[in-house]
Structures are given as C-alpha cells and as structure tokens.
Amino acid sequence: MKILVPIKRVIDYNVVVQIQSDHQKVVTDHVKMSVNPFDEIALEEAIRFLEAGKVKEVIVVSIGSDKSEDQLRHGLAMGANRSILVSCADEISNDPLCVAKILAAVVEREQCELVFMGKQAIDNDCNQTGQMLAGLLNWGQATFASEISLKGQSLEVAREIDGGTETIKVSIPAIVTADLRLNQPRYTTLPNIMMSKQKPLERLSLQDLDLKLEPYLKRLRLDYPEARKSGEVFHDVDLFLKKLDEDGVCN
C-alpha cells in the first residue's frame, strides 16, 4: 500500500507577509519559504505508518515551480521514499480544483491507496483541495484528523468538531486531511538531509499527465486587514450597558 502526500511551498509561518504595490501578489524575494505546516504534519503521519510497516511506500508530490524542489528534498529528508514535482504556472498551483485534478491524475498514475494531506494551506486558507480530490476519485474522506489508526482495510479517524472530537471509520482507498493536533513533525538531521539528495525526484508536466487546465479562480486584489480600532474604557456600569444597547450587542 502506498501513501501519497502533497506538500506545498509557502512563506514560512514566522514571516510577516508583505503585499506588493500592485496588490496582486505577496513579496517572496529573499523571504524564507517552507513546507506548509499542515502538509508537514500529514507527511509525519505517513512516515510513521511507513516505519510501523503499515505501508510500503510514501511519495511526496509538489505542484508549482522548480523552486518547490527544496520542499520536496525536505520531505525526503524526513523519511519519504521518493518525490514528484509537477511543473505548472502559479495560477494553476493556487487554484484548488486544478490542484485536485492534478493530484487525481498522480494518484491514478502511481496507484496509491491513501492520500494524507494538510487540511489547508496557510497562504490561501481555502480548505477545499482534499474534499475536491475525494469527489474526483469517488473515495471516502476524513477531514480535520487528530488521530489515525489502521484497522484492516479501513481507517479509524478522530476528527476535530465543535466542542470535541468524533471518531469515524472510512474504507480504504481514502483521503485524510490533517489537523494541528495529529502529531509533532520531526526535525531533519544532517545525515538525512545529505541522503535525501540521493533519493529519486521525478519531474512531470501537465502534458505528461494528459491534463490541460485553466484556472477557475482569478485574484482581483490583495489587501491588509483593517487596523483594529482602539477600545473604550468605561467607569460607569450604566453607561457601559447603554453603550452595549446602542451598538446592538444586547439584542
């Protein structure tokens, strides 16, 4: 059994994102880039399955520019067996449905039975690709996973819901999207980083996957969030309640 793990190249979560003057893109020059944190968690879980002998192979795949090779090498250093880079324009790699179609083609090409992926990417927060991929493949899905157990030909997944968790059973083949509480990704050691350079990295184009895609979404504008208004201090309870009533908070 194989697990496919999609990973996305994003601006590191510790970096303060800056918007370009044209309000179309964010500044990426000389900015630290990393693996999307949710994808890294999904990869860690897949590698744990591999180390426990539950699966035979873990494949990491990234979609976008050649710069994503760094993130694929990181995935290989963590313990993935091999990697695939699907080259395409940024407009395609940032469109959830286009990405889902590419992943569906890779799944069929590699004959994978499981896909572990992050619940969302921190750059666009769409939280759509996993669900779309499950629909395209007609597979079962478990989203927001905080615990995954293999039970024969199915998975038991504890997933985050309002006020707690619920445990569901999903038949394999399946898509699982990872939440933050699933695990803590390992640090990559220098020997593993060096060994990752010897592991296979296959490059594919959309033509290789027999795909011709056009983005379904078009970004119109990027803007910073509005500055938070300063609070107001009340020393009189009646005045405070009157203000709440005027603002409609008490309705």
What does this structure look like?
There is one protein chain. With 251 residues, this protein is an alpha/beta fold. Helix content is 28%, strand content 27%. The chain has helices at residues 37-51, 69-78, 90-93, 96-110, 129-137, 190-196, 237-246; strands spanning 2-6, 9-11, 33-35, 57-64, 82-87, 114-118, 140-151, 154-161, 164-171, 174-178, 201-205. The strands form two sheets. It has a nine-stranded mixed beta sheet, with helices on both faces. The chain has a two-stranded antiparallel sheet with strand order 2-3.
The total beta strand count reads 11
Strand content: 25-35%
* Fraction of helical residues: 25-40%
Average per-residue pLDDT, rounded, comes to 90
Our Rg estimate from Cα atoms comes to: 21 Å
Shape: globular
- Stretches with pLDDT under 50, minimum 5 residues: none
Q: Tell me the distance between the termini.
A: 56 Å
Q: Give the neighbour order of strands across the main sheet.
A: 9-8-7-10-6-1-4-5-11
Largest sheet: 9 strands, mixed
Q: Which class best fits the helix and strand makeup?
A: alpha/beta
